[in-house]
Amino acid sequence: MPQLSYIDDTIVAVSTPVGEGGIGIVRLSGKDALAVADKMFVARNKEKPSEFKSFTARYGDVVRGGETIDEALLTLMRAPKSYTREDVVEISAHGGVAAVRTIFKLAVDLGARPAEPGEFTKRAFLNGRIDLTQAEAVLDLIHSRTEAFLRVSAHQLKGELSTELERIREHLMNVYVAIEAIINFPEDDIDTEKQWVLSLCERMQGAQDDMQQLLSSADHGRILKDGIKVVICGRPNVGKSSLLNVLLKQPRAIVTPIAGTTRDTIEETAQIEGIPFQLVDTAGVFEPRDLIEEEAIRRSQMSIRGADLVLFILDASAALNAEDEKLFDLVRGRNLFIVLNKCDLPPRIDEHKIKTAFPGGNIVRVSALNKEGIAQLEREIAAQVWHGKVIDTHGILISNARHVRALQDALAAVAQAQETLKKKLSLEFVSEGIKRAVNFLDTITGRYIDNDLLEQIFARFCIGK
Fold this sequence. Notes:
By secondary structure, this protein is α/β, with parallel strands linked by helices. Helix content is 46%, strand content 18%.
């Protein structure tokens, strides 16, 4: 397992967001955490932190040279039953910027080192409390934008993905051991040889099926983690900004009867049916009157081309015009919903012409003004994203691109080994292929990983976690 160069240091960090709040937490971890705490915290009962029992909290004062900095609670978690498996001290003070910063600086002056990003979680990994998938789950929990992805991350933190990967690994290691035994103690009987070749192929296929099952969840995991980019487009004054505001459930975009009110793309995030969406309201595509509108049109067209899903807005109360039809060519062939807005007004739009231009297209009727049809639109968007499937967020979903690549590499290595065995080539090649597959799986859990990649992973964490 990789080693951290400063693993023997005692580290300190502010574990709460910068700014004013009800509470601010300064966290220490390491062999000298208690020694530092003894020099800066005086409990009201005069007991030293090093004398506290584990999992206890004491009320007292943070002091420097006899002067009280702040009153606080000190919580102690002794090794190995702590987050890092080291002695951990948490000082919960008032959440002012100056108070927390002063307590942090005092701990540094007394011998603690400022922690690197994610170093507390890194120590939990290096000290064997969690594996790398669980460490990455901590980051996913922090960054979760929806309850659904929060649930997926919590299952990964509990070790459910790790357990499944270890099961596949053990399966492959059994195959590897069997091949090595055959290499060292070959069978002369042809029928026996056929039987073990068949048995090994079946076991390899089982491992491939298990990995493929995990990979089949990757698209859904990515959607829950990263979200879907939805671009709202249409000619001026068809209700694009009104629809954006309704989907966001807040008045984000300015809405007026004046065509061309939106002169730049507006991007906001929203949760629809448990899915995070990046909603992009575009400027109406029309002939530019100045350089600003020319740039707005360019950005709108670029957003449409990069969208996962397009909501093409048409005014149901007006006849199609040249600007609408100009957009037909821009959105045709894309993942698309045709939204007929202003359905609270008498219809004048030629729906037959729309259906001819977009055979089999998804057409939804709404009134953004009265919020009619919005719930139906949201349900149909979610169904389109999930392709009509019901997604169980209580199970294992692969959401990490690093895990996907490693699983794909492991799957390819096993498939190649299986093909080599079927061709009756040297068993050493088969054995090597299985070993490579195991190594790829080990990079996911962190059993086998280089320090550079480890640094990259933990650099994405915040300081204090």
